[in-house]
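From the shared-data thread, chain only:
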Amino acid sequence: MREWKKNREMMKSHFDSDAFAGEESDQTLGMKQPPLEIEPLPDSRIIDLPESSAAELTEQNIYKCFLKRKSRRKYSEESISLKELSYMLWATQGLKRIVPAYSMTGKATLRTVPSAGARHTFETYLAVNDVTGLESGIYRYSALNHNIVFLFKIADMKKKLTEAAVGQSYVGRAPVIFLWACKPYLGEWRYKGESHKAMLLDAGHVCQNLYLAAESLNLGTVAIAAYSQNKVDELLRLDGNDEFIVYLAPVGKVENAYRHQHD
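Structure, as tokens:
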């Protein structure tokens, strides 16, 4: 068998197999549930976001959003507003409520996207180039509090983002880039080795919501799975093992001529 064909096994369901027979999940063993999201450091700079409903939608017809949805790689030089960013963050990871779960051994979050076992294994990072009211740099979204935490600045960020995206320059130039980092133990704690396929499926749910939210705001995005794992993890200062990037998507205002030509 060709070496790369072995990856096909991860696409299959193994919930009824004995691949992990004899292994109890950490949840079953009574081990403490991992935190729902990363806590900010005590001296972190936290920026509250406007209510997600404050965004002014240019398209409120969901049917038209489905119809117009497509990958868009050309953006105007307009900035994105904080209201627009708030809405897109809520649409992709927004918290609806926290509920007791797992035989009262922990808590789970119900959000605007589905997730296997309500594990929600992703942290949303933002590389901000041009969002009104925000300085350039790397941020992390808190779904529990609907705010963002400023993490650090990066010199020559546009260039480094382009390099991390294996030369796709529109990624580096976009006003904001969503970068979803997986924390695999959040899924493994409950589902052991069966969790990995489910987590990748969940990434698709998140990104599709970004597509639809962007279309409703006359913004454009494109899902990016071609990137340098080492470069993007290093850029965000992730360890690459317990947390690593699995998906990213640049977002920008769509040039009207481009929209009308390609809709």
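Strands lie at 45-48, 95-101, 106-111, 122-128, 137-142, 147-152, 176-182, 219-221, 244-253.
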